[in-house]
């Protein structure tokens, strides 16, 4: 166990943190580094959800209304053709999407397909993502995998791709489009419930009878943000102690924006707060403002999801716990699902594939399977892979 802990320490120390670089990574990626070595991943625990189910619904609506089949998603066989698949990410400003990049490119190499990651510049760049979709349609990709910026804002462009004969898959971020081939995500509501249930358990262990919490969930309108907040409210209502949500502040997951929001929140409510729960870009941004306010011994920061940065902060005690949507596994399953469809494999396709969540804190840190969520040490973001050139 000690050896595993040391290996993870080296891995987290050496990982390239994309969030600190922002858009400055693009020049360095003009000539991308060699892709990560071919790896095999274990079958991923999932819930596959089949029709009939609620029309124009979220992934959580599908979970509530569809036929749910628990199981695992196995690695697909190598493709018989060099299919071209475009991946539309909302940005690459935090390590979560770096992990997704790793999952995509490593599997593209193993499967023998071409993959191009086309990122927008943030959750305020819907127009940019719509342009990327138009470009992918014009380039006649065989499939498109989108991580939509909005729950409904991308629906028309998804329908446009489908009308052009291009199957569109969803990765991580949710939407209410009925024109998707398959959704690959998690129960976004469960991100909120799992993180908040940890908070409640921790509060009970501390002997607290009631707690005040504040949320930094991310950008208003994003599907995962709504899931975080809805899940937190559900867990708060179910709790055996009083859980008071006294502030929610929305904003882009950019570090500067979230640091400002955290500072404002603490200036108004800091003395009252027991816990602060934030998204992958939000929770780390709150750590220094909490310290600056002298609240780090009282106020505990928890994350709705896991990145390498959050893992380091759990190890150091700056963040206490994180739910885990397993971004690397999601990306792997998404590209495998696309290849299986293009190859004509399988009879009945699920409407939605939900990757089952994890949760990490200091109690299980030494044995946690971080490779399902975090790229390997030293990984540098790669935006494309073409088997014809490698």
List strands and helices in order, with pairings.
Elements: H1 2-14, H2 18-21, H3 25-28, E1 44-50, H4 59-65, E2 67-73, E3 84-88, H5 95-111, E4 114-117, H6 126-138, E5 143-146, H7 155-163, E6 168-171, E7 182-185, H8 188-205, E8 210-218, H9 223-238, E9 242-250, H10 255-269, E10 275-278, H11 282-292, E11 300-303, H12 308-316, E12 321-324, H13 327-342, E13 352-355, E14 358-361, E15 384-385
Parallel strand pairs: 3-4, 3-5, 5-6, 6-7, 7-13, 8-9, 8-10, 10-11, 11-12
Antiparallel strand pairs: 1-2, 1-13, 4-15, 12-14
Helix pairs in contact: 5-13, 6-7, 8-9, 10-11
How would you describe what is shown here?
The protein has about 400 residues and is an alpha/beta fold. The protein folds into 2 domains: about 45-185 and about 325-385, Rossmann fold, CATH 3.40.50; about 190-325, 3-Layer(aba) Sandwich (Rossmann fold), CATH 3.40.50. Helix content is about 40%, strand content about 20%. The chain has 13 helices and 15 strands. The strands form 2 sheets. Strands 2-1-13-7-6-5-3-4-15 form a 9-stranded mixed beta sheet, sandwiched between helices. Strands 9-8-10-11-12-14 form a 6-stranded mixed beta sheet, with helices on both faces.
